[in-house]
Structures are given as structure tokens and as C-alpha cells.
Design a protein that fits this description.
Length: about 90
């Protein structure tokens, strides 16, 4: 795989960081303003917290991998763990 030029890597990192901030904020805002059939606020539940953590963590892992601070194996382990966290049962 060819090496990324510094400006392309910088654009990717800025995009990932923006996704984390904007995505996390949008998720929390959506779930905080959600109401049920009776008009009562539903609040933030376990799945909301899981999705917010995933949206905030995945871009950080990818940015660290692009910077060379994480090995390929470490990146795979962290992303696999994150996928397992998201897909875990709701218990």
C-alpha cells in the first residue's frame, strides 16, 4: 500500500476529528430530545451510550493509526473490541 502524503493524512485526521465531535453531539442531541408516545422524554439509555462511545472512539483509533502511534495489530485489536462492544447484548 502506498504511503499517504502528509496533506492527505492531515485532511483525513481533520475529517475523523470532525466526525467524532459532530457525530457525538448529534447522537446525544437526538436521544436527549426523543419522546415516547405519551410525550414524555425517553432520556439516554445503554444503546445511546454505546453508540456515542463508538462514534467518539473509532475516529481516535484511526487517527492514532494514521500517525503511526498504534501498530497494525493494535489497531485491529481496538477496532475488534469496539465492534464487540457495540454488538454486545443489551442485558
Amino acid at each position: 500500500m502506498p504511503e499517504l502524503t502528509p496533506w492527505i493524512r492531515g485532511l483525513l485526521e481533520i475529517g475523523f476529528a470532525a466526525f467524532a465531535v459532530i457525530g457525538g453531539g448529534c447522537l446525544l442531541r437526538h436521544y436527549m430530545t426523543r419522546v415516547d408516545k405519551d410525550g414524555k422524554p425517553m432520556g439516554i439509555g445503554l444503546r445511546t451510550i454505546q453508540m456515542t462511545v463508538a462514534v467518539l472512539t473509532a475516529p481516535v483509533v484511526l487517527i492514532l493509526a494514521l500517525e503511526g502511534k498504534l501498530s497494525v495489530e493494535g489497531t485491529g485489536i481496538l477496532l475488534g473490541t469496539l465492534i464487540g462492544f457495540i454488538l454486545s447484548p443489551k442485558d
